[in-house]
């Protein structure tokens, strides 16, 4: 239900200080035989690992376990500042997954059919599989910057990620030696990786890929400060689009 990044931050924000509190939590959620560890940090790692690898696990209320743990965090918050400010990195990561966090609870911002978190995890897995290490680094930095509310930095990393991804796709499927990023995209169109019948690449510069690239940063890689909503839009657009082309690469012959 939630991405790996959200689960890791959620477990971190539980912030148990005493073993007795952690043990009580485990009993409440039926995790006493699952969460292991001598130290609290070990128990946190054990809990996070279980949630990541069992995303459909049920909680005591028969809902999604990770979702119920997030509700537990909200229910037990006793601070004076707004919960989305107290847990700002978690709130921002939830935004990537298509949720918003407030004292009233969790709200789904995207249709259920759009499972951004699944695409996010798939993308990370395939970047590792294809050894697109530099692209993966840009992607992770974009997510990290977004979680900290550094919108301009996230935007810059998204553009670098997309550029590096398509460069590596070119190197993976083409035998041609091309120096410029634009030449590499032209070769991808010539080879049919960009489907020209679907207007993914148009020689007059008005194709989907060209428009997608221009929209990511109309002012270049460092346009200054940008708004959260715009960065969230760019991030969602990048995840959906690059996942689409990653699947095409995976099936490329």
From TrEMBL:
<protein>
    <recommendedName>
        <fullName>Abortive infection protein-like C-terminal domain-containing protein</fullName>
    </recommendedName>
</protein>
């Amino acid at each position: 239900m939630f991405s790996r990044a959200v689960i890791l931050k959620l477990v971190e924000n539980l912030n148990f200080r005493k073993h007795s509190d952690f043990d009580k939590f485990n009993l409440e959620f039926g995790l006493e035989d699952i969460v292991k560890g001598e130290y609290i940090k070990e128990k946190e790692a054990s809990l996070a690992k279980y949630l990541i690898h069992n995303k459909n696990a049920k909680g005591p209320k028969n809902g999604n376990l990770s979702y119920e743990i997030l509700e537990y965090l909200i229910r037990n918050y006793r601070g004076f500042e707004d919960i989305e400010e107290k847990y700002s990195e978690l709130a921002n990561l939830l935004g990537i997954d298509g949720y918003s966090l407030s004292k009233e609870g969790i709200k789904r911002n995207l249709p259920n059919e759009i499972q951004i978190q699944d695409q996010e995890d798939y993308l990370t897995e395939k970047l590792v599989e294809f050894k697109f290490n530099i692209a993966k680094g840009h992607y992770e930095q974009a997510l990290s910057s977004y979680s900290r509310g550094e919108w301009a930095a996230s935007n810059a990393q998204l553009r670098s990620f997309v550029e590096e991804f398509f460069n590596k796709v070119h190197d993976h499927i083409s035998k041609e030696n091309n120096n410029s990023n634009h030449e590499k995209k032209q070769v991808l169109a010539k080879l049919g990786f960009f489907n020209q019948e679907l207007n993914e690449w148009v020689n007059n510069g008005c194709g989907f890929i060209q428009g997608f690239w221009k929209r990511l940063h109309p002012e270049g890689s460092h346009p200054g400060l940008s708004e959260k909503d715009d960065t969230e839009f760019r991030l969602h657009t990048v995840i959906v689009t690059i996942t689409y082309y990653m699947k095409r690469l995976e099936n490329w012959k």
